[in-house]
């Protein structure tokens, strides 16, 4: 298999040094007899469509390739056609694309095939590659869950740059909060993906010169106006707008645009359409785009931006495929976010290399870099579980979103050591005294256990029991 793969490589494209291993692991996965659903993690600008094309080229089985959008489907399909010099084996099944062709290699969107699981089973499809796999709900009642159950697909491999999902939790007191967890992390609903079989770290891209250098400028930011939503997963839209006004970001953005007059293709992220309009009126050679904008008008703006006819785009809640424009050399963040995934996506717009730019300038006016660190410092590391870390060893996953920045790699090591020691510890089952006497200690409210540890002289084993259940 390895020799055959290398022959195909020679005929198709000269791969980067960091691409061969991941592609081979993907090919090997689809040749396993009974694999579990798995993930390959590849950073922005790695070339996921190239991996997809090689996997498709190197299989004689029927393969379904799933994309979350028409744009990505088109990108993946034509990368396959370009690299393989043929389209005879490949078909597209997507209503938004206007085609419903089922062939040996079928590129599809889930909305178009959600009710066709049994038909794909009848046609002999047993393998599926999912691009941007973090975007799909995997519960049994989701579109993907229903399709997988009906089709009885045996091999499922997901590809993503961000192998994380938002998980809603409740404290014992009933307070809601959110965690960002790895896709392989266990939850009450289970975990569909069981293994990560390969990770391409961002630093590999940086060291090999496949990421544009990023230069960060940060401003003093007062985040006192920011308020979490009820799920504690993101700041409320109203509070982000208040912070924008309180920090006079409008003036700061105009000032930064004037200071960096050498920058040719600039994205500015702002929290409201009205603010985008106001800024655009003051900024020559600029335009705005926003989520509710007519798709045709949005496409026209992006096209002019890519041609260099527009220097600045003021962006409100839009991160479309059209922004894979390599020439972006400056990003200004005028809105705050508690989402590391959104932050990664925003900065990712400037990471692609281009012959006409030396670097990409990141101007953060909203406290995001301080919160998460530099994107190129993100790593995924495996301890007892997989975890995501940022600048300075900040833990970014597996903890409540509102506590990000408070726990480091060193703290995690200590916690894992304590857990290992607890495995040999037998806790006391029932409370021996007080208002919770005879109640299971594990069910006693967290606030009381914390209070007791701070204020009572507990015997050694009882103290250890309280700590065990915290």
Supply the key terms.
disordered N terminus; single chain; alpha/beta; 19% strand; 470 residues; eight-stranded mixed sheet
Explain what this protein looks like in three dimensions.
- It is a single chain.
- The protein has 470 residues and is α/β, with parallel strands linked by helices.
- The protein contains 17 helices and 18 strands.
- Strands 4-3-5-2-6-7-1-10 form an 8-stranded mixed sheet. A 6-stranded parallel sheet has the order 11-16-15-12-14-13, with helices on both faces. It has a two-stranded antiparallel sheet with strand order 8-9.
- The longest helix has 15 residues, at 70-84.
- The model is unreliable at 1-11 (pLDDT under 50).
What topology emerges from the helices and strands here?
Layout: H1 2-12, H2 20-31, E1 38-41, H3 48-57, E2 63-67, H4 70-84, E3 90-94, E4 99-100, E5 105-109, H5 110-113, H6 117-122, E6 127-131, H7 143-151, E7 155-160, E8 164-170, E9 176-182, E10 195-199, H8 202-207, E11 214-218, H9 237-246, H10 249-259, E12 266-269, H11 273-282, E13 286-290, H12 295-307, E14 312-316, E15 330-333, H13 340-348, E16 360-364, H14 368-372, E17 379-382, E18 386-389, H15 409-422, H16 446-455, H17 460-469
Parallel strand pairs: 1-7, 1-10, 2-5, 2-6, 3-5, 6-7, 11-16, 12-14, 12-15, 13-14, 15-16
Antiparallel strand pairs: 3-4, 8-9, 17-18
